Amino acid sequence: MLRHTPNLLTAVFEFLAFSPMQLFRNERSMSRVRRPQSVRARDIRVALSMLAITLGSAIAAAPSMGQGAAANPAGETKQDPSSQTQTAFAPGVVTVIPPAPDPKETFDGPQTLQALINAHPEISWEKSGDHPEGKPHFDPRSRTLEEMLKQVIYRREIFCFELSFKPLRQIYLDIPRPDGKMQRKLVQYMVYRVRYRGGDLRPAVDNPDEPIFKRIESVSYQSRRFFPMFVLEDREADQQYVDQILPTAVERIAIREQITAPLHNSVDISRVKIPRTEDPNAPGVWGVATWVDVDPNIDYISVNVFGLTNAFEQDGEGDDAPYRRKALMLNFYRPGDATNQIDDRVRFGIPAFDDEKQQSYVLEKYGLDKRLDYRWVFR
Fold this sequence. Notes:
It contains seven helices and 20 strands. 20% of the residues lie in helices and 29% in strands. The strands form five sheets. Strands 1, 2, 5, 6, 7, 13 and 15 form a seven-stranded mixed beta sheet that branches. Strands 11, 12, 16, 17, 18, 19 and 20 form a seven-stranded antiparallel beta sheet that branches. It has a two-stranded antiparallel sheet with strand order 3-4. It has three domains: 2-62; 92-99 and 159-378, no CATH class; 113-150, no CATH class. It is α+β, with helices and mostly antiparallel strands. The chain is elongated and about 85 Å long. The longest helix has 25 residues, at 37-61. Helix 1 packs antiparallel against helix 3. Residues 66-85 are annotated as: Disordered.
């Protein structure tokens, strides 16, 4: 924000040049005017109100902190399409992460269906009287069923939601225990909003003249459902916390955040149809992820959001083949300690330092070689 101070001061000075505050520039003119004290006081209040509006507009127009040039001492170009905006359904600023479907995620392979080959040995070509060389007379060997089973390409349709969120916060709440008693605990939570923008990708009619990942088309539906899972990750202790359903916490968080839209937990939100919309002011569907028993000394935090897309990666076939889901990783920084945790502000993004050693140390904690406030990963 300090980088934009000259611009803010310029806006203030321009405003003062055309505002009722100019009455104070010359005491003699003030004495000649001889306006009643109540009128001058009213002019002061009007001027201060207009000044607040001018400052608010200038601050809102300033680039958001994070991976942009405003947060980077070197002034590097913003590396992500995220943005910050205000919404009428929750006071404050939310960070918007646009959907990012990748055409290459619509196919997987080529892979070998070894299980099918082993189950049907009769499809293998062997030397026989009609085929002494163990291959077809006219067609290439690649056209045999056995060889085709070694070059199978899976194709699928993928979708991706837009996610908006407010920074991580903490609150003390009474949580029910298994024995029915209440226990006061510190709850970490993140309020978010999901919207379905359409633009899903699906395989199109094959065209041998184009690469396979270009044989796709865009399609949209009336609505989709969101099946989320939020995993909070301690980057220092390498410990993960899965969000927990706390029915008693949702109402308290909604009151604290002044959210006027219905607020859902990670289970209830899966029952709501998220309608397709292109309106930038659409309300979307609001939810909250909650975590308890998080290490109070945590400083470097990542939140992995699963369910925003159905894209995945798999190596090979079978139950033992590694399977990875695409998730959105949000990086946060909490400068504080275990004392007065609710007063600590959790900031979105990776902090920037002028000292290269300190910057390298922080980047190492997040497993990065450059500052990225968020990224899409397969986990």
